[in-house]
Amino acid sequence: MSEVEIYTTSICPYCVRAKSLLTRKGAAYREINVELDLGTRDAMVARAGGRQTVPQIFIGGRHVGGCDDLYELDRRGELDRLLGAVG
Fold first, then answer.
1. pLDDT at 77 exceeding the cut of 80
2. Under 8 Å CB-to-CB from 23, ≥6 apart: which residues?
3. Domains plus CATH for the chain?
4. Do the bridges between strand 4-8 and strand 56-59 make them parallel or antiparallel, or are there none, so unpaired?
5. In this structure, how many other beta carbons lie within 10 angstroms of the beta carbon of residue 20?
6. ω before 13 within 30° of 0 (cis)?
7. CA atoms of 64 and 77, how far apart (whole Å)
8. Order of strands across the sheet with 30-33?
9. Confidence (pLDDT) at 87
10. Which pLDDT belongs to residue 22?
11. CB of 62 closer than 8 Å to CB of 5
12. For the chain, how big is the Rg over CA atoms in Å?
């Protein structure tokens, strides 16, 4: 499976939703909490092309966006391929 990184905060319902979908897909992920470390948040914004909201999700080093983007990939049948579970 592809490496999955998800930038989160502890109070974000969209983060919970995104992690739930990844868990249902059987994808292990590395959660990076940006709440208390300004440097980590700055790194997320830089990697995410200026996007400042959480979650920001990367699969195999590729920025796929936030929670809604992740669910849209799943709806289109592309998430499994990105995760390496299909094909």
1. yes
2. none
3. 4-83 (3.40.30.10)
4. antiparallel
5. 11
6. no
7. 14
8. 30-33, 4-8, 56-59, 62-65
9. 38
10. 97
11. no
12. 12
